[in-house]
Fold this protein.
Amino acid sequence: SASAGGGAAEEDESPSMGLLLSIVDIHLLRPHYNGQHILHPTVLYKLLDDESRIVPDIRRLYTLGKRVNGGIDLLRTAFGQYGRERGLEVVRGGGGGSSASPSGPSKAESKDAKLKIIPNLLSCKSHLEDLQIRAFGGDESFAKAVSNVLEEVCNAGSDGRGDDDGDGGRRVAELLAKYVDLRFKNAKAGGTTAPSASASAAAVLARTESTGSASSAAMVGLAGTTESEMEIFQTAVLSLFRHIHSKDVFEAFYKRDLAKRLLLNKSVSLDAERALVSKLKAECGGGYTAKMEGMFKDVELSRDVMTNYAAHLQGLAEDERAKVGNVEMDVQILTTGYWPVYPQYPNLTLPPGVVEHKKRFETYYGAKYQGRRIAWQHALGNCIVRANFPKISAPRDLVVSLCQAVVLQCFNLEEDDDAQTERGLTIKEVMTKSGLDDRGEAERVLQSLSLGREGTRVLLKYDRESAKEEISSKKPRKSRRAVGEHDIFKFNTAFTSNQRRIRIPNMQMKETAEERSKTHEAVSRDRLYLIDATVVRIMKARKTLEHRALMGETMAQLKFPASSSDIKKRIESLIEREYMERAEGDRSRYNYLA
């Protein structure tokens, strides 16, 4: 009957389907599920790049892999290679990769490309993790593949080579620190609070050689970003930080940038700063963040000290308070050892009001904290200077660094030597009058005051090839960037601006190539000391040890990438300094010398 026939058809359907699938697997799927066909980069990479195909196409590819013997292993290997290539493309992006012009990228292009490396690397990481969760069903083996990819990419050099031949993560560590600095500064809304326009202000930095207790201060609220957004940002940063081997490089650059943000009040939030430092402490231990935490304590202590100092000034007689005039001063007390080392300019010719404030603060601080020595650091001082220009009816407030303010004093037309000032000053004359004896800093200050963006050029620069060459009374043509011995600088009497407060960028605040190089050199120097300490510690505990065992234990204990040649050099150095010696009769064994 018809009903009986129908039942027979249903019974045959399942075996027939199984046979059909088996034929498909044997003749279509298995021969093509490999690196020469379906998993070939030209086919697979386009598929993995397309986020719209994560579900169902890439998920279907993963499911089909389970039906092939070793298929998941092949897919995981291809996926890892895909992630590695995409990640290395990002890392090479700031180095002027293959698409760069023969003459190389311009400075602006190179800088912009470098700024994009960390955001692009985070996007790449997010995409790989999305594939692992949505397409590969959260397979742990694929999660490990993602981790291995990030480990290799984060520790590759600008040429894309891995940790063994690359830079051990130095480049990515530095860029990650700069990325954090940029986010913490640019997320701020509204700028800093400035003193009233009725008074000039000067900020002078101080450094003391002993620590002091700090009371907890009220935290600054988040500005321009929500707490959840900041938490997401910090979590993303830490997710890359964990894979970086050169964590000491990140620490060095992050600490320098953190110091500038705190001293110049350019941080988005003290809350956010402390939160990230706490996360770094949880990752690397208290020793890693001890100096950073000390910076926060100094900032809190300085706030309390200045509050008490202001109350002290109010208690003085009116004639005593009049000696400092209308100049306000804020001092940051910095503990030696916590903060980066800044250049000192002990011979600066400070304004009289600042000098009086400085003397009074030294007397007050010396009486309150006996036994502490103050060494003034002017490199990061900043001021608001009241300036009058002939073409502007009302005075303008110039927001400048302390060195810029001291140089501007040299062009004050109320000085006794008006004739020399009106004639103009050479860089040597400026250095003599200002007391700024660092030629490089003097050049940067004069360039920032005369060659900055439109609306900030309060000085004019006239290029001269010799001292006898006359300068034109007309506005000079576009000047060369370099400052020559005979170049003349004059006060810009034709200066105009509609802004009441004019911020003149300080070139010294921008990290120079020399400063960056010195930071890397300091890290390399500290690594040598750490290798020495590690070898001595091992030998002191073991007393005698073979060369291969000593090398292995040293590499295992070091927290940064070190080559075997570096360790061998330090062992030879320790032998020369008689910390250890080679065993008699066995040159491959070392003995510890007490």
